[in-house]
C-alpha cells in the first residue's frame, strides 16, 4: 500500500482532467502529472541514490510543484517531511536534523537560508529550488514504477506547531493517511470528479493533507499566485473556477468574512469551507454564515491524528430549529465515523456526558508515535489511546465541546476556569477584535484570570465596560481581573495564538494595571 498509487490511478482514470492550476491558469492534467511524478521518482532513486524510507523535506510555499515533489517522494518509497515555509532558518534546521532528511526541496525564498545547511545538518546532501533549472532536469529520465510500501510504513513526518516546546515529528503512515481520506469522504465533504480545492492554507499542514482526497477523485488543485491566503485573490479565483472548496483556520474565516462584507463578491462557485485547527468563536461563525451561507464544515484534529477526530457537518450547521443549536455551534461536532473518541479522567477511565476530561482517540488514524522520540510517544499513546492534551466533554447527543488544552486551564481559588468560555464572551463585545485569556500567578488565588485584548477600531475600550459585560454573561469568578490592551497577539506560523509568549510577558513585566 503506497499513497503514490492514488495519483497513478488518477492518471489512468482521470487522465485528461485538469490537475493543477496556477491561479486562474490550468498548468497540468492528471496524465501528465502522473508521468512527471514517475520520472521524478526515477531521478530521486537513480541520480541521488535515495533508498526506501529515506526522508525528503519540502520547505516550500504553496506552489504548483508541491504535489509533484510530495508524490514523487512517495512514488520512490521515500518519506516526505513537509516544513512550514514561514519558519525561520534555525527552525527549519531543527526539523531537517531531527528527521535526518537527505534532501530538501525549497521554494526560492528559502533557498539562501537552507542551502548552507548542507554543512550544518549531517544527513543533508542536496537542496534543490523548484524554480531552478536543476529541478527541471529531474524530469528528463526514465519513469519508474511505484515502490511498494507496507501500510505501517511512514509517509509523512508532520512536525507539530511547537506552541509548547520543540516541535515533534508525528509519524504518519500510509494507513493513517488512507484513514484520513475515508474520513474526508464520509464526514467532511463527499466529492465528485472535477471539483476543486484552493490551497490558501499551508500545504505543509491541513491544505496539503486535504489535497489527498482531491487527487483520489481527479480534482483540481488551485494554487493562488500569492502562495498564501489573500481574501480578494480567493474571490477572484472563485470567479474563474467552479465547485471550489478550501481549508481555512478560524482566523482566516474571520478575515474572509470581513473582506466579503467590504467587497460583496459573487461566491456561487464556493462549495465548502472546512475550518479547524483552533477554536472558532461562535460570534465569528454566525457572521461567516450570514455572509457565505451554509457552506461550512468544522473539523477537529491534531498532527497526531491528522484532521480527523470529530467533525461538525453542514447539516449540523444548518439545523437552526434544533433546541440546542446555539450551544452546539460552540462544539467541534461528533466523532468521525471511523474513529473512537473517549473523554477520560486522570486514571484513563471514560467519563459520562457532561464531565470534563482529556479527549483520547483510537483507530487507524492515530500515528504510531513520534519520530525518534520513544519517551514522548509512550506518553502520548499510553494505554493504546492517543492522549490529545485537549480537555473536553460530550453532551447527550455525542457532540464534543473542547474546553482548552489541559495546560491552559486556569485554576483560580481551586475552581477551573476555561479560557475559551471567557474569550467567547469578550469577543461578543463590539469593541473587541481579538482576545486571549490566560492565568497569572497570584498569591491569594493561585491564579487569576487576565485578558489580552486587541480593540476593534481606534477608540480603546475601557476595562470597566468589559468587566460589566462579563458580569452580565458569566460567573463573577471567571471574569478577568486585569486587561492588557495590545495592538496584536503573538501567533506562530500557523496563526495559533502563542499563549506561552503572553505568559512570558506576564512574568517579565509588571504591566500597567488597567
Ligand atoms: P496541530 O497538531 O498543530 O494541528 O494542533 C492541534 C490542536 O489544535 C488540537 O489538539 C486542538 O487543541 C486545536 N484544535 C484543532 N482543531 C480544533 C477545533 N476545531 N476547535 C478547537 N481547537 C482545535
From TrEMBL:
<dbReference type="InterPro" id="IPR000873">
    <property type="entry name" value="AMP-dep_synth/lig_dom"/>
</dbReference>
<dbReference type="Pfam" id="PF13193">
    <property type="entry name" value="AMP-binding_C"/>
</dbReference>
<dbReference type="Pfam" id="PF00501">
    <property type="entry name" value="AMP-binding"/>
</dbReference>
<dbReference type="InterPro" id="IPR045851">
    <property type="entry name" value="AMP-bd_C_sf"/>
</dbReference>
<feature type="domain" description="AMP-binding enzyme C-terminal">
    <location>
        <begin position="421"/>
        <end position="496"/>
    </location>
</feature>
<dbReference type="InterPro" id="IPR020845">
    <property type="entry name" value="AMP-binding_CS"/>
</dbReference>
<dbReference type="GO" id="GO:0031956">
    <property type="term" value="F:medium-chain fatty acid-CoA ligase activity"/>
</dbReference>
<dbReference type="InterPro" id="IPR025110">
    <property type="entry name" value="AMP-bd_C"/>
</dbReference>
<dbReference type="InterPro" id="IPR042099">
    <property type="entry name" value="ANL_N_sf"/>
</dbReference>
<protein>
    <submittedName>
        <fullName>Long-chain-fatty-acid--CoA ligase</fullName>
        <ecNumber>6.2.1.3</ecNumber>
    </submittedName>
</protein>
<comment type="similarity">
    <text>Belongs to the ATP-dependent AMP-binding enzyme family.</text>
</comment>
<feature type="domain" description="AMP-dependent synthetase/ligase">
    <location>
        <begin position="17"/>
        <end position="371"/>
    </location>
</feature>
<dbReference type="GO" id="GO:0004467">
    <property type="term" value="F:long-chain fatty acid-CoA ligase activity"/>
</dbReference>
<keyword id="KW-0436">Ligase</keyword>
Amino acid at each position: 500500500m503506497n499513497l503514490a498509487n492514488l495519483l497513478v490511478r488518477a492518471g489512468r482514470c482521470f487522465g485528461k482532467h485538469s490537475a493543477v492550476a496556477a491561479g486562474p491558469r490550468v498548468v497540468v492534467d492528471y496524465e501528465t502529472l502522473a508521468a512527471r511524478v514517475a520520472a521524478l521518482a526515477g531521478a530521486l532513486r537513480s541520480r541521488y541514490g535515495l533508498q526506501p524510507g529515506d526522508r525528503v523535506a519540502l520547505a516550500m510555499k504553496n506552489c504548483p510543484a508541491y504535489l509533484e515533489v510530495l508524490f514523487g517522494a512517495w512514488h520512490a518509497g521515500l518519506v516526505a517531511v513537509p516544513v512550514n515555509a514561514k519558519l525561520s532558518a534555525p527552525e527549519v534546521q531543527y526539523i531537517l536534523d531531527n528527521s535526518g532528511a537527505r534532501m530538501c526541496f525549497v521554494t526560492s525564498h528559502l533557498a539562501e537560508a537552507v542551502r548552507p545547511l548542507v554543512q550544518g545538518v549531517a544527513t543533508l546532501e542536496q537542496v534543490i529550488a523548484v524554480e531552478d533549472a536543476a529541478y527541471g532536469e529531474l524530469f528528463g529520465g526514465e519513469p519508474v514504477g511505484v515502490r511498494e510500501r507496507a501500510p505501517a510504513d511512514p509517509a509523512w513526518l508532520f512536525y507539530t506547531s511547537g506552541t509548547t516546546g520543540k516541535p515533534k515529528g508525528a509519524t504518519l503512515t500510509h494507513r493513517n493517511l488512507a484513514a484520513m481520506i475515508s474520513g474526508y469522504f464520509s464526514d467532511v465533504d463527499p466529492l465528485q470528479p472535477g471539483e476543486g480545492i484552493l490551497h490558501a492554507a499551508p500545504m505543509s499542514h491541513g491544505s496539503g493533507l486535504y489535497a489527498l482526497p482531491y487527487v483520489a477523485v481527479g480534482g483540481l488543485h488551485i494554487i493562488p499566485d500569492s502562495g498564501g491566503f489573500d481574501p480578494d485573490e480567493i474571490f477572484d479565483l472563485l470567479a474563474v473556477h467552479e465547485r471550489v472548496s478550501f481549508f481555512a483556520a478560524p482566523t482566516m474565516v474571520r478575515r474572509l468574512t470581513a473582506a466579503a462584507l467590504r467587497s460583496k463578491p459573487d461566491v456561487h462557485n464556493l462549495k465548502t469551507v472546512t475550518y479547524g485547527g483552533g477554536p472558532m468563536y461562535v460570534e465569528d461563525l454566525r457572521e461567516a454564515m450570514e455572509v457565505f451561507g451554509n457552506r461550512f464544515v468544522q473539523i477537529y484534529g491534531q498532527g497526531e491524528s491528522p484532521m480527523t477526530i470529530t467533525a461538525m457537518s453542514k447539516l449540523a450547521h444548518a439545523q437552526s430549529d434544533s433546541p440546542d443549536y446555539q450551544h452546539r455551534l460552540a462544539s467541534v461536532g461528533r466523532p468521525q465515523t471511523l474513529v473512537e473518541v473517549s473523554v477520560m479522567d486522570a486514571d484513563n477511565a471514560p467519563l459520562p456526558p457532561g464531565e470534563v476530561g482529556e479527549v483520547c482517540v483510537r483507530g487507524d488514524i492515530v500515528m504510531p508515535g513520534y519520530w525518534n522520540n520513544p519517551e514522548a510517544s509512550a506518553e502520548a499513546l499510553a494505554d493504546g489511546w492517543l492522549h490529545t492534551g485537549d480537555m473536553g466533554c460530550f453532551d447527550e447527543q455525542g457532540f464534543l465541546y473542547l474546553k482548552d488544552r489541559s495546560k491552559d486551564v486556569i485554576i483560580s481559588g481551586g475552581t477551573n476556569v476555561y479560557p475559551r468560555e471567557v474569550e467567547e464572551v469578550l469577543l461578543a463585545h463590539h469593541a473587541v477584535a481579538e482576545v486571549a485569556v490566560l492565568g497569572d500567578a497570584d498569591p491569594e488565588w493561585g491564579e487569576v484570570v487576565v485578558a489580552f485584548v486587541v480593540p476593534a477600531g481606534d477608540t480603546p475600550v475601557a476595562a470597566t465596560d468589559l468587566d460589566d459585560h462579563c458580569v452580565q454573561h458569566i460567573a463573577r469568578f471567571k471574569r478577568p481581573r486585569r486587561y492588557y490592551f495590545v495592538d496584536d497577539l503573538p501567533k506562530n506560523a500557523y496563526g495559533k495564538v502563542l499563549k506561552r509568549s503572553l505568559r512570558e510577558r506576564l512574568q517579565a513585566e509588571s504591566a500597567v494595571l488597567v
